[in-house]
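Components:
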Amino acid sequence: MNNNIKTLFSAALVAIIGVTALPANALNVFACEPEWAVLAQELGGDKVKVTSATTALQDVHHVEARPSLIARARNADLLLCTGAELEIGWLPLLLSQSGNKQIQPGQPGYLEAAASVAKMEVPQLLDRSQGDVHPAGNPHIHLDPQNVAKVGEALTARFTQLDTANAEAYKMRAAAFQKKWHEATQKWEAQAAPLKGVAVVVYHKDLSYLLRWLGMRDLASLEPKPGVPPTTGHLSELLAKLQREPAKMILRSAYSDPKAAAWLSERARIPTVTLPYTVGGNEQAKDLFALFDDSIQRLLTALK
Amino acid sequence: MRLKSGVVASLFAAILGISLNAQAASDTELAEVRTQIRQLKEGYEAQIKALEQRLQGLEMAALKAEPVAAKTEPPSEQATARAGGEGAFNPAISIVLNGAYGNFSKYPYRYAISGFVPPHNGFSPGTRGLSLRESELAIAANVDPDFRGNLLLSFDSANAVSVEEAYFQSIGLGNGFSLKGGRFFSAIGYQNEIHSHAWDFVDAPLVYRAFLSGENYADDGLQLKWLAPTENLIELGGEIGRGKDRPGSNRNKNGSAAGTVFAHLGGDIGESQSYRVGLSMLRTSPHDASINDVNSAGADVTNAFTGKTTIAGADFVYKYAPNGNAAHTYFKLQGEYFRRRESGTLAYDTTSPGAANTASSYSTAQSGWYLQSVYQFMPQWRAGLRFDRLDRGTVNVGITNLANLQLVDYNPSRTSLMFDYNPSEFTRFRLQFAQDKSRQNITDNQIVLQYIFSLGAHGAHKF
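Structure:
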């Protein structure tokens, strides 16, 4: 037995030494969410190698510190996460297990996107009787294009700091992206004008920034409290509320459970709109531009 | 809104009208009523208009408030909003409340694992009736830029407080290394590092009861881990410690009396599946390790073992969630196998008055395993099934103690079925049925209803 274990250990060591020869030139970016992964790719181009810890079909609150994530965090030069406690269940564990000094909070290799923007819905009462609340405010910040622009600026600053040799290239890419992004934002705002003042019901408070940006009204959530799955009691109350104060549509993100929205949709006779929520949430949302294009199109279609 | 006020006014009018018809109305009365109606109508209209204006104002404010706040508030201002003063550096505190109702068909205090030493060791699988289970207080914070500190105290139903874990952990040794020191759960096996409130079943696998300390094997020592710079997880590590708990003996000895080595390999298979496999080995040299037993008359005796114990294990855990989204449904399969080898001397009945105190050679090679699966079939609801088995293997006892130690030839087993309901991430209610055949010729049917509440700082989602 002992000898067997020793053989296995040495076999593993040999395997490792074989793999250690990694390309050292590209900046390894570990993004917690797909929106930041594509932003990093957009702004870093071929100078960076990006990996995303989660996909659009996963509920970021409920991710585990999987072995593959620990391994990827260990090799990262820059960790780009939303922060504001969105990843509270798994990111601290990744950081402590990674054995990677560069990506610890306070280091240049640690960047929290939410730190660059002002948060909505900062709880007045910090108590779990209010559900799974985030003390720093609503962390789902990326569906307001102005926030994406701000995070982009912070990210470019970090790229140039970490990889000074390519600083000029990052700045050029950033200027091009920000210009294109600004134009796109204006286009979206013009397209979305009819959405202003439209009342909607959401599943989770993960679309608040989008609704605020488009001037839409968030009447209620399918979740009785943030992070608590919809209950039949709450849905019945919602139905009664909608009869007094009608909403135009129910919005849910691709990763959320479709059942509750379908139930209410049928009874309240209003459509459910499934938004991609982030890049990869549906076939159309291939990048950040397409994510906004598609989301706005879906909202407009449902309004007709 | 206008329409509503009209309806209200005409309703009033109708009511008044009806009451008026009942009387013989004179002209003056009619005129009076007309003015009253007009006054009422005007009053209501004014009030409704005021309310409408207020509503409109509020709606506008709600629409404006957020963007305004967003534009005028620079992010730096949010940081300064944090509480200052002495309390600002308070560590993160979390509490676990844990309790159960137990129904055991056999007296839990007489619990034993037949054929294995130590068969008793004061271990009980639970308490009949309502009781507190291990409730926990955890405190953690960064010490400085290089270290993090953790303290976990546990409280049991007998009012005993124990230090479950108290360790420092390096934050940034770099190059994949991390160092832990103090008292901590050893990295042997898979479930050993997981606190009991995060287990998928109420109690520990039988093999942990038979070979390790019963719940989690903790030691006072040092742990060094290294993570390879690879795409998949390859983790190697080792521990040294004093071997304070079973299978160790808390020796009066300089140096270390226990050592562990472990290796983990893990990764994802596509987006929906992930796994971790591990090998580990614990070696300790107990000296006069006290073992509770009963003699042939059923009276308690204490034995002592001196020698070498090696426990080697293999473990795996596999998880499946559609698209990797465990919020709705997931499946988890987990199994561990341990093999224990002991060699040394066993002294029988060392403490009782007129003790027999006979020593003999003692060597064993025994093994045990369990396999369990948990399925979350809909959000908030999970079901689980576990099978435990121990294999008595070979036991060689010197002739002097052969009759004293009642090491029957028996392979203990247990089957457990679990359901739990999790109204929120911080609450769990669990019902567990188990058929425990740890004792030869005895079947203990166990029903446990358990609650687990987590308060305070958000817990970690360990894989």
